[in-house]
Amino acid sequence: MSDEGSFDDRDGWIWFDGKLVPWREANIHVLTHALHYASSVFEGQRAYGGEIFELTQHSTRLRKSASILGFELPWSVEEIDQACRETLKASGLIDAYMRPVAWRGSEQMGVAAQKTKPHLAIACWPWGAYFGEEAIRKGLRLDISPWRRPAPYTAPTESKASGLYMICTMAKHAAENKGYNDALMFDWRGQVAEATGANAFFIKEGKIHTPTPDCFLDGITRRTVMGLAKKRGIEVIERTIWPEELEGFEQFFLTGSAAEVTPVAEAGPWNFEVGDLSLQLRKDYLDLVNRRISNV
């Protein structure tokens, strides 16, 4: 199965509410609640060498995200783990990106959704470097997004909810239209937050600084990379970071299941070196996911 072409017209299999169905038949009704009111949550995870990295953490977060939005999934973490493995096996892929998604169905229309049925689907496909290999060598160019991450008292920011990504799509489109790879987003207070789908890390004088995730996801890859840095004896500081501080940082990189570890060369008016430490942490991460899988 190729990673090119429309996502509704491919060969392969998608796990859908308890069984594998042909890719083209994994459809929902146009009056599905999630389509109208964003009552949907999802995960992004990668398989390396035929095993899915930190699968149980992803499945746990998926269930938590749905619960935060007010609907409970009838599948346990263990059942979601197994469904992901079945999907990967059916795909015939060894290295893949995986997308579990859960949503409210079409039994009720309107803002209220108590009568809707929860659904779960899992798909996977081949996907190389999220930003492309050239971006890894040269570093990403980020615009500064005109949209900001919302305050936790205005949106379910601890959930990986589809609706929260609306402004990410808008920010990324605006950036790409100006020739950038992505956008750096600030939060409602004006503090540095994250990119449109990845956490942010900055390096200065051998120390790593990263924004406190109090209004955006504390990513699974984020925590993994923090652990790798600490194993190297590198101090990692979680704190408030203001835009005016960016001029003083030497390196900048992003982390995420899709992005993995990707260096940044430019963010708005600020420039950064694609430095040895950023590249070392990228290597450490890729070594970890492949070594971890090879030892399973």
Question: How would you portray this structure in words?
Answer:
The protein has helices at residues 33-37, 55-69, 77-91, 133-138, 166-177, 220-231, 276-294; strands spanning 13-16, 19-22, 40-42, 45-48, 51-52, 96-104, 118-125, 140-144, 182-186, 192-195, 199-204, 207-211, 236-239, 251-256, 260-267, 270-271. Strands 8, 9, 10, 11, 12, 13, 14, 15 and 16 form a 9-stranded mixed β-sheet that branches. Helix 5 (166-177) links the parallel strand 8 (140-144) and strand 9 (182-186). It starts with 12 loop residues before the first strand and ends with a helix. The chain is globular, with a radius of gyration of 19 Å. The chain has 7 helices and 16 strands. The mean pLDDT is 95. Helix 2 (55-69) packs across helix 3 (77-91). The chain is of the alpha+beta class. It folds into 2 domains: 13-125, Aminotransferase class 4, branched-chain amino acid transferase, N-terminal domain (D-amino Acid Aminotransferase, Chain A, domain 1, 2-Layer Sandwich), CATH 3.30.470; 133-294, D-amino Acid Aminotransferase, subunit A, domain 2 (D-amino Acid Aminotransferase, Chain A, domain 2), CATH 3.20.10. Helix content is 28%, strand content 27%.
CATH class call of the largest domain: Alpha Beta
Helix content: 25-40%
Provide the residue-averaged pLDDT. Answer: 95
Rg: 19 Å
User: What's the architecture of the largest domain, going by CATH?
Assistant: Alpha-Beta Barrel
CATH topology of the largest domain: D-amino Acid Aminotransferase, Chain A, domain 2
Multimeric state of these chains? single chain
- Estimated share of beta-strand residues: 25-35%
User: For the record, what is the CATH homologous superfamily label of the largest domain?
Assistant: D-amino Acid Aminotransferase, subunit A, domain 2
Coarse morphology: globular
| Spatial separation of the terminal alpha carbons | 26 Å
Number of helices: 7
Number of domains: 2
Count of DSSP strands = 16
Structural class by SSE content: alpha+beta
Question: What is the succession of H and E elements?
Answer: EEHEEEHHEEHEHEEEEHEEEEH
User: Spans of 5+ residues with little confidence (pLDDT < 50)?
Assistant: none
Largest sheet: 9 strands, mixed
